[in-house]
Amino acid sequence: MEASGVGLSASDRPIFNKLQLEAAELSSKFNNNVLDSTKAFKLKISDPSEIEGLPESAKVINLVYSTIYIYNSFKKIYRLWPQNKPSLKEIRKLLLLMVPGL
Fold first, then answer.
1. Are 85 and 79 in contact (CB under 8 A)?
2. What is the pTM of this model?
3. Number of CB atoms found within 10 A of residue 65's CB
4. Phi-psi bin for 101: left (phi > 0), alpha (psi -120 to 50), beta?
5. Using one digit for the tens of pLDDT, what is the confidence trace for 37-77?
6. Which residues of 73-91 are buried (b: 16+ CB within 10 A; e: fewer)?
7. Measured distance between the N- and C-terminal CA atoms of the chain, rounded to whole angstroms
8. How far is it, in rounded angstroms, from Cα 20 to Cα 69?
9. Nearest-angstrom CA–CA distance, 19 and 13
10. How far apart are CA 96 and CA 102, in angstroms?
11. In 6, 25, 38, 45, which residue has its Cα 20 to 30 A from 53's Cα atom?
């Protein structure tokens, strides 16, 4: 088979073009699904032994992302808090207590 179906008969070209289009759509859908799954992936670490052997830089990155996640969660809760909201300063203090080593 030649590139882009050039060597195909006139009756086979529409079939080839349809298959090419379908393959491109499936490829795009697959890539989007992989991207969505990658974005949605979360690894919950509950025991420090689970990250033994990781370089310190990876542990720091994990701490930073965990802190950002917790802080953003607090901000969402804060917006939904009905009344007598704590100040953001109080929330930050609580956050510092929850994330050791920060």
1. no
2. 0.43
3. 11
4. left
5. 877 777 777 787 888 888 888 888 878 888 888 778 777 77
6. ebeeeeeeeeeeeeeeeeb
7. 62
8. 42
9. 10
10. 6
11. 38
Q: Mind spelling out the 3-state secondary structure of the chain? A: CCHHHCCCCCCCHHHHHHHHHHHHHHHHHHHHHHHHHHHHCCCCCCCHHHHCCCCHHHHHHHHHHHHHHHHHHHHHHHHHCCCCCCCHHHHHHHHHHHCCCC
Position of tokens 């006139």?
Answer: 10
